[in-house]
Amino acid sequence: MKTKALSRSAAPIALAATLLAALLVLLSPLSASAHDALVSSSPAADESVEVVPAALTLTFNAKLIGGEGATEVVVTDPSGATITDGPATVDGAIVTQPLTGSGPAGAYHVIWKVVSSDGHPTSGEYSFTVTVGDESAATTEPSAAPTTTPPTAEQTAAPAPTATTVTESGDSADGSAWIWVVVIVAVLVVAGVVVWIVMSRRGGGPRTDSDPSSER
C-alpha cells in the first residue's frame, strides 16, 4: 500500500518536471530568434561633436552577417545631403561607415540596416549634432544649392525603401513570436488538464480504499 501511495504521489512531480523541460525547450528557440541590438555608436545618439568625423561606427551585441546589400548606412547633413563616402564595412559586430569628413554645423541624421546573426534584417535611426562644422562647406552651400537640389531629393528619398523593408520584417518576426506564445499557452493548458485529472484520480484512491473499512 505504501509503495502504491508513493507511486501516486510521485506521478504529479514527474509530470511537472516533464512539462517544465518541455517549456524550456519551447522557450529556447524563441529567445534565440531575438534580433541583435545596437549597443553603442560613434558619434552616439544625441551626442554633440565639433566637426563631422572621418567615419561613423556602430557596435552590436553579436557578430553580424555581411555580404553585398546586407549592411546599409545613410548619414545626412542638416540640408538632407548624404555625407557617406563609400559603402559600409562589417568586421564581426562592428560596422564602419566612411564619411566625407566635412559639413556644416547642425543636426545630422543616421539610418542603418544590418542583418542579425539569426539571418533577419533589423534597422534603426538616430541623430547627432555638429556644433562648429566646416565653415567652407557652410559658405559654399548657398551657391551650390540650385545644382545639388535634385540629387539631394533623390538621396533623401533613398532610405525610405529600407525603412519599409525593415518594418515588414519586424512584423513577420512579431508574428512568429506570437505563434510561439500561442503554442506555449496551449501546452500549459493541456498540462493543467492532465494535472487536474491525475490529482482527481489520486483523490479518488483513498475514498475507494476506505469503503471496505466502513462496511466492516
TrEMBL record:
Extent of the signal sequence: 1-34
Gene Ontology annotations of biological process type: copper ion transport; response to copper ion
SUPFAM superfamilies attached to this UniProt entry: E set domains
An annotated Gene Ontology molecular function: copper ion binding
Biased composition (Low complexity): 135-169
InterPro entries found in the cross-reference section: CopC/D (IPR032694), CopC_dom (IPR007348), Cu-Rt/internalin_Ig-like (IPR014755), Ig_E-set (IPR014756)
GO cellular component terms, semicolon-separated: cell envelope; periplasmic space; plasma membrane
Keyword hit for Membrane: yes
Keywords, comma-separated and alphabetical: Copper, Membrane, Metal-binding, Signal, Transmembrane, Transmembrane helix
All copies of domain CopC, residue ranges: 35-130
Region: Disordered, residue numbers: 135-171
Segments passing through the bilayer: 177-198
Name listed for the protein in its UniProt record: CopC domain-containing protein
